[in-house]
Amino acid sequence: MAEDLVLLNALGVHLVLIQSTRHAIDSYIRDQGIANTYQGHRRITDEALLNRIIEMAGRNRLIFRGLYMRALHRNRGRSSLVSGNFVSAKPLGIHEGINHKLTGSVRRIDAEGIRQQLEVGSVVYLDHLAHSPAGELYNLASEEVAAETAVALQADKLILMGETPYCVDQQGGRVSELALALVGSIRSNQNDEMSRRLDATERAVRGGVERCHLLGTGLDGAILTELMTTEGTGTLIASEPAASIRQARVDDLPGLIHLLAPMEENGALVQRSRDKLEAEINHFYVIEQDGRILGSAALYPLDDKCAEFAALSADYATTEQNIGTKLLRYIEEKARSNSLQSLFVLTTQASDWFKERGFMMSSIEELPENRQALYNLQRNSLILKKEL
Fold it and tell me: What is the pTM for the complete model shown?
């Protein structure tokens, strides 16, 4: 990770790192047989525990500094790793009758001081221990420090890393991206660690941070993969979906033609002229990210019970990024909302792909008569059907 951070800094990315020792503290408490020190997501910190946390945080800081210096030397970097009193704290106090003692929360972030260090190329390193204006030291939640720092700096991104690599859906599958408004729909599927990160994510996005990435520390290169590829490895949460699906517009025609042309040339798709594509534009849907069309598909109603899923395409650079699956799921939901009961697909080269997603082999006789009349015998397309 230190190597990746040095690389990002060399590329001009301004980095603020926030240390967490939560897992180390939890391990220490278990080993010592100390009673539960949590109230909700907040740790209750007495003086003895605070002294132990100071020791852990200091050791981790020195270990990371050594790793960072080695990475700098190996990559001929020149940045400095800077720490300081950029975070001021206040006591958390008594909540629900429980005295949290030396557990605190963020009082203020010295955003200007951090920016001055970033502007000269330094990497700012913060931990979760901070003093109050009165000089009292408090133990803060690292996720809170990260979120408040990101908001104060109006950061482009907040990256929260932990043992859990991403959010999961009800089936335990990875949620690669999510709009902030939908976070509540997946909360019950997450463990405590991810729930804490989701709290910080919501605070950051509502505070103006455009995107938050939830990543796992166990995957080598996780940060670079998340930032430099379309699909990434973790969960991206933004105020709006990063890759959104919408109905195609006439001004999408150049992008659609670019996507469809290679597949039309190799015979995977039926050729459509620009005029025909423009006439049928209302049947098409596109998936778009950062103003770039990544994929497209069409939904053609055949009668009041079924429709045809057609013209599925994806940008060559995103063929491994589940673009097709996302479009299929979206169009299935669109068909269900229109009270359709089944989808047909005609394909010459992708029957296995559709079978893996619930389609079954069908026949021309099962197609509605209006679609049977348009069936191209020369293409000899396989016909598959999926009940919705």
Answer: 0.68
